[in-house]
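Handout, section 4.2: multi-component inputs.
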Amino acid sequence: MSNPQQLRYSKEHEWLSAADQDGVSTIGITEYAANALGDVVYVQLPDVGSTVAAGETCGELESTKSVSDLYAPVSGEVTEINEDVVNDPALVNSAPFEGGWLFKVKVTDEPDGLLSAEEYAAFSHN
Amino acid sequence: MTDAPPTPRRTALDAVHRALGATMTDFAGWDMPLRYGSERDEHTAVRTRAGLFDLSHMGEIALTGPQAADALDHALVGHLSALAVGRARYTMICDSEGGILDDLIVYRLAEQEYLVVANASNAQVVLDALTERASGFDAAVRDDRDAYALLAVQGPQSPGILKGLTDADLDGLKYYAGLPGTVAGVPALIARTGYTGEDGFELFVAPDDAERVWQALTEAGAPVGLVPCGLSCRDTLRLEAGMPLYGHELGTDTTPFDAGLGRVVKFAKPGDFVGRGALEAAAREAEARPPRALTGLVAEGRRVPRAGYAVLGPDGSEIGRVTSGAPSPTLGKPIAMAYVDAEHAAPGSPGVAVDIRGTREPYEVVALPFYRRER
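Output:
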């Protein structure tokens, strides 16, 4: 699997796109994380308009075998959630970096230590 | 209890699983395939076509000798001396307090020869108990765990797949029967058993023959959509079929009557058996004061109940505990088995919910199983 070069990554296995002209970044989980979870059957995402804090839980992902917390890789206000993935959580497995994106945040603060694609690959050993 | 070995054991099919890219998991000290691709697709394949499993972690124990039947009648709760040669029985081994040490499938291979199949996690306990309990009988207990690899082909297409590979009369082989034969040219004990709720076969073969049989089944099954299947889908398949799993629905703190499986206890059989007194008391108690009943729950929402979660009644108090829960691929909703207070355990019982990490999620009480195949 390959981690897209233009994204940055958290050690909680989320990815983050570069901010657009409005300062909004798209967030999802990596293919590595999706494979580790197995078939995702339910996603709970933060409410649009709510504030998320970097490193804190903001939702959950359920797979056949387990439930995992979803962590916000940056702080900010949630501007949009992916309704398609709420209705069809399998998108997280089939297209984690594309149609399986989770939510968008207008970033107010980002922590040190977000990883490049190469650094994340080394971190996750893939 | 013995300590788990430092490195997990690998089955005779380990190289096959790795070549297929399986995600492996530690299960009772064995490195087993959890899934090869999507566990939901594997589940659906077994329900609609066929799936191929490596179950070599299961623990085989042989009992032989003139009093093998009497020894099993004494050691287990079932009436194994009444079992016909060539047939199999689901039964249990209990401790003297009536607690379940394991649930078992016992095959009678010959008049004086039985094969007991235990769960991997309990195989040593069962072996030790059988050895001790058979000591007063003219019967030998043999640890055959390393003598077999166990493959299962499960699903509606499985008879057609196996038919071309075996000399055995599959049409004459009933559900819960087993007979010796050949598969792909090698000797096998062919049993019409499984843990999926589908028609299917379990094949006990020599470990050295396992890969040959696996490849033959893979090739024969490819045209009808057979896929390799891991333990993850085995768990959702058995859950939909309402089949208990040791460590979840069954344990030493549970009697067969607590589990709603009192029918496996055969008080009418000859002679005494381990746990008889305690089980007679448990049967009377269950009659007088129905215990928590093993119950099916179907979610109205999409959040998945997990083992250990509290079941809540209409007034919010705890009325039971989830023992197994998973998203059901067949129903398209989360399902669970739970022990629930008798007064709330009837199908349709109102106001039942599961506490899912602090949120009260409504659940419908249903009769088990969740899924029953058409015959």
